[in-house]
């Protein structure tokens, strides 16, 4: 029998607010153990939470960007469970009225456009971290306790690990476009739980699902999904049935093992948090949030494909980075350069510099205006393409304009025909052998152009050199 996989994801993203969700402790990653803590986030009796307004703002922003309905009146609920990384013994989350519902995320898989619906997005607090030390036992670090999260729950719309990966990549680029999450996978800024079931191909009914936890990377998600689909098919083919359970993925051993079965499923005893009041987002605030949302990655991707004729790879590389895409769009909007020329510079030399130096585009001195000026200097023949590469490196690192750099480095291209003619004649006089070869019918143009370039210290305009050299050789 042929089977179809059905996958639903629960994605957690840490919001990049300065302070935690219910207290004023710093939410920054990487501080000394238990230095970002206070009575609220360590669950001291009597300490009262106060909601961080920025969390509501960011959660609603993600909801609007994914076409969700925003519940302008929502609330916080207690999700009760005991675990040492959660000192209150409950997590403040949202239950029946999440801030966002019924969204859609669009993405491309092998050239085909797909949609995965979002059931909801809610905000909640992160738990602390257990550090298992070899000698001293286990230590609890509460720095992460109370760091704001949004949880995005999909409908079971994904059908393969490839679709899940593209969905996750799209969530990531969207979060980074919205500037609400730092997206540092290695710091756990985006994490996901994966639900997998199988069903006979053509069937509309959902099969029994298995939930997988402990997936830390998108490539790990692909491996975990492929493993679980195969495990379920093998089980069913062998006459068994899939049990509803939670399994832990081990990305080193490349397999998963049972964590808990349906029988010991938890009852979280949700109830409205009596320490917090309802959250209201008025129309004006909602409109302000909406106005902050830039054109999103998939839309830019389509525009670059359709309007600029870019390849899927080029359009993807540009639209994946908000900074690069914005630089391209600003350069195109200047009307002074061809969009494709700007795109080529960004994809090649700009990207290479950023890779080599491990810098973010925003952290360099390059702006779209500077890039446009540089391309114009090349287009007008003022400098050569090669000199342009030298100028670009300076544009990243100094506040000078392209013109100032050209001046300082003496890179101006010589196009003056009189000056170039004397170089050409000089080169011909000094290269008797090449001239003899030319008369004997050999092709020596490349060599002679090289000599002229050298004599002009690289500043001679190659087109003018070619033209005048050809004319002089004709005369011989
Ligand atoms: P819970 O609250 O127990 O985590 P939900 O019903 O909220 O359960 O579902 C969680 C996730 O599981 C959602 O992303 C949903 O799309 C997915 N899911 C639900 N049923 C299935 C199924 N049969 N196969 C695959 N995924 C599923
Ligand atoms: Mg769940
Ligand atoms: Zn605190």
How would you describe what is shown here?
With 476 residues, this protein is an alpha+beta fold. It has helices at residues 53-65, 161-178, 218-237, 283-291, 297-308, 312-319, 322-334, 339-357, 368-379, 385-397, 402-409, 417-430, 432-439, 445-455, 462-475; strands spanning 3-14, 69-70, 73-74, 77-80, 90-93, 100-109, 112-125, 129-133, 137-141, 148-154, 190-200, 210-215, 245-250, 255-261, 271-272, 279-280. It has a nine-stranded mixed β-sheet. It is elongated, with a radius of gyration of 30 Å. It starts with a strand and ends with a helix. The model has no long low-confidence stretch (mean pLDDT 95). Bound molecules: adenosine-5'-diphosphate (ADP), magnesium ion and zinc ion.
Task: Report the helical percentage.
Answer: 40-55%
What is the number of strand segments? 16
Order of strands, widest sheet:
2-6-7-10-1-11-12-13-14
State the low-pLDDT regions, or none: none
User: With helices defined by DSSP (H or I, 4 residues minimum), what is the helix count?
Assistant: 15
Tell me, rounded to a whole number, the average pLDDT. 95
Main pleated-sheet profile: 9 strands, mixed
Q: What global shape is seen? A: elongated
Bound ligand species: adenosine-5'-diphosphate, magnesium ion, zinc ion
**What distance lies between the first and last C-alpha atoms, to the nearest angstrom?**
81 Å
Beta strand %: 15-25%
What structural class do helix, strand and pairing data support?
alpha+beta
Radius of gyration (Å): 30 Å
